[in-house]
Amino acid sequence: MADEKTQAVDAGEVVLGHRRTLTGTVVSDKNDKTVTVQVIRQLQHPRYKKFIKKSKKYHAHDELNDAHEGDVVKIVESRPMSRLKRWRVVEVLKRAV
What we know:
The protein is an all-beta fold. Helix content is 0%, strand content 57%. The protein contains no helices and seven strands. The chain has strands at residues 6-10, 13-16, 19-28, 34-44, 51-61, 72-77, 87-94. It has a five-stranded mixed beta barrel with strand order 3-4-5-7-6.
């Protein structure tokens, strides 16, 4: 039985209390202490029932400048840090080759 605070919402998305976590690929690390993470999700078309891939980019705070382009990272929702940054990098799951 799952913990009351943790519940699966969507593929790759888990709710911890009120903070969502997402898993995605770093597509840009050119800014200082900021990475751009692309999260891909699959959803079913309401009429045609075909699975469609949708993607969205999030700007995430990377305090240690640890994540680089091509890495798979886990990001968590946080307080607004700038106009675009509302996510933090929690860990690097897989390094780019």
